[in-house]
Each structure stands twice: as C-alpha cells, then as structure tokens.
Amino acid sequence: MSDAFQEDLCKELEAEALKQQAVDRATLAQADKALASLNRELDTAKQLLRECADDLACYIEHEYAATHEYPSQKRRYERDMELPRQAYKFLGIEDDGK
C-alpha cells in the first residue's frame, strides 16, 4: 500500500469515527430527554396513586368508623384496606399513608 492510500484510509476512518461519535451523542441526548420525560410522568402517576389511596382509605375509615371493632366488620375493613396498603407499600409509604 502506498503512503497516500494509507493516509487517505486513516482520514476516512477518523471521519467515520467522528460521525459515529456525533450520532452516539445525539442518541444519548434523545435517550436522556426520553428518560426525563418518563420520570416526570412516573412522578405524576405516583402523586395520583397517593391521592387515590388516601381518598379510598379515608372512605373506608369513614364507612367502618362505628363498626370495625366487630369481628365480621373488622375482617371486611381489613380486606377493604388491602388496596390502599398495597398502594402505600408500592410508593414506599409506611403507616397507611400517614
């Protein structure tokens, strides 16, 4: 191979590598934007889940306020409170959202 050919080949390879780096940087930037958007959506969904769980727990507390000490009502109360408890557990909140 001639020196000129090798030099041209090296320049072409360098140019291709630079193009690939630019594409990689652009791809990473797009991925970062998408991840940031997904994190914002997840935060919103968590806020909505918390609000729903709080509302449901409040409703259940009110529904069983006078009767949840009776054994049969206590079982129903515990069963109905399972959904808000699962939501709180998913959100990493202890003590049923309190």
List keywords for this structure.
98 residues; mainly alpha; 2 helices; 84% helix
List the helices and strands and how they pair.
Blueprint (H helix, E strand, L loop, with lengths): L2 H61 L7 H21 L7
Helix pairs in contact: 1-2
Structure overview:
This protein is mainly alpha-helical and 98 residues long. It has one domain. It is 84% helix and 0% strand. The protein has helices at 3-63, 71-91. The chain is rod-shaped and about 95 Å long.
The proportion of strand residues reads under 5%
Q: Assembly state here? A: single chain
Shape: rod-shaped
Helix content: over 70%
The total count of strands amounts to: 0
Largest sheet: none
Count of separate structural domains: 1
Give the overall average pLDDT.
89
Name the structural class. mainly alpha
Task: State the end-to-end distance.
Answer: 77 Å
Low-pLDDT segments: none
If you compute it from the alpha carbons, what radius of gyration comes out, rounded to the nearest whole angstrom? 29 Å
Number of helical elements = 2
How do the SSEs run, as a string of H and E? HH
